[in-house]
Amino acid sequence: MKIELVDAHDIGVAVRAARKAQRLRQDDAAGSIGVSESFLGKVEKGAESVHWGKLFQVLEGLGVRVSVDIPDAAGELFASEEIKRRVRVERAEKRKAVREKLDE
């Protein structure tokens, strides 16, 4: 089912619904996903200041997929920016691996 998300509260409603559909208590869901119950509670309440990485961890853990509908004109730019981001991540991972070897 696709729903339009307008603000953080909409994400919270979607997360709570996904958790309840799986008949999971908040503490059990949080534990299996690897976040605190307090964090999951903030997400479900639509708190506007949550950590993006943890939010996506919760969404993935509950099987919630997120997609973004961007204007067609932005599609090409998105693709090139994504390639640049991947290159930066790969370079950072290589630098980290070299530093770890030097530290051994």
Layout of secondary structure:
Layout: H1 8-21, H2 26-33, H3 37-45, H4 52-61, H5 72-103
Helix pairs in contact: 1-3, 2-3
Describe the structure.
With 104 residues, the chain is an all-alpha fold. It folds into 2 domains: 8-61, 434 Repressor (Amino-terminal Domain) (Orthogonal Bundle), CATH 1.10.260; 70-104. The chain has helices at residues 8-21, 26-33, 37-45, 52-61, 72-103. Residues 15-70 form the HTH cro/C1-type domain. It comes from Caballeronia humi. One of its GO terms (molecular function) is DNA binding. This is Helix-turn-helix domain-containing protein.
What is the compact description of this entry?
The protein has helices spanning 8-21, 26-33, 37-45, 52-61, 72-103.
- Category from helices, strands and their pairing: mainly alpha
Instruction: Write down the secondary-structure element order.
Output: HHHHH
The number of helical elements comes to 5
CATH architectural name of the largest domain: Orthogonal Bundle
Q: Main beta sheet: strand number and arrangement?
A: none
Q: How would you describe the shape? A: flat
Question: What would the keywords be for this entry?
Answer:
5 helices; single chain; mainly alpha; 434 Repressor (Amino-terminal Domain); 2 domains; 104 residues
